[in-house]
Design a protein that fits this description.
Tag; mainly alpha; metal-binding; DNA-3-methyladenine glycosylase I; DNA repair; 2 strands; 2% strand; 190 residues; two-stranded parallel ribbon; Endonuclease III, domain 1
Length: 190
């Protein structure tokens, strides 16, 4: 069974993520918010590092329930800076609450975070047909636009590379290589 290059067979965590989550279209607001925050936490680090800490992030940030995260007090965020189970970067920790507040504003205006984020791809996944990992971009004009729009709305840690990774992870873009067994499976999902 062939997988994308980054899902090494000797890394069970990355394989499981690749085989069951990456590229699967997500529409649930809290799930999308989780990925938005985790992709931002990854900035400057490896995805594996963040993935290994995901359960701790879920505990620290109330299961990524947007309303609960938006209501977090400064003292609660300060205590998270002592938690070795998450990445203890003050800017990234406070950005999670700021992003929840921005997400609430998007939901009030657009009906859901999912509807807003998926509007960047006109509500349906883009299906790339990359044969080699060297073809897969780190960002595109689409991720540039998403980044710019999210920043205008007050989101933080949403640079163009983070936005592209978010779109890949949540199935807005199918970037499984054509030789990967998941390419065809994800292509049939909406």
């Amino acid at each position: 069974m062939h997988r994308c290059h980054w899902a090494s067979a000797d890394d069970a965590l990355m394989c499981a993520y690749h085989d069951t989550e990456w590229g699967v279209p997500l529409h649930d607001d809290n799930a999308l918010f989780e990925f938005l925050c985790l992709e931002g936490a990854q900035a400057g680090l490896s995805w594996r590092t963040v993935l290994a800490k995901r359960d701790n992030y879920r505990k620290a940030f109330h299961g990524f329930e947007i309303a609960r995260v938006a209501a977090m007090k400064d003292r609660e965020l300060e205590s998270l800076l002592l938690d070795p189970g998450i990445i203890r970067n003050r800017l990234k920790v406070t950005a999670t609450r700021d992003n929840a507040i921005a997400a609430q504003q998007v939901i009030a205006e657009c009906g859901s975070l999912g509807a807003y984020l998926w509007s960047f791809v006109d509500g349906k996944p883009l299906r790339n047909r990359w044969k080699d990992r060297s073809e897969v971009p780190a960002s595109t004009p689409l991720s540039d636009r998403m980044s710019k729009e999210l920043k205008k709305r007050g989101f933080r840690f949403v640079g163009t590379t983070i936005c592209y990774s978010l779109m890949q992870a949540t199935g807005m873009i199918n970037d499984h290589l054509t030789g990967c067994f998941r390419h065809k499976e994800c292509a049939g999902m909406h």
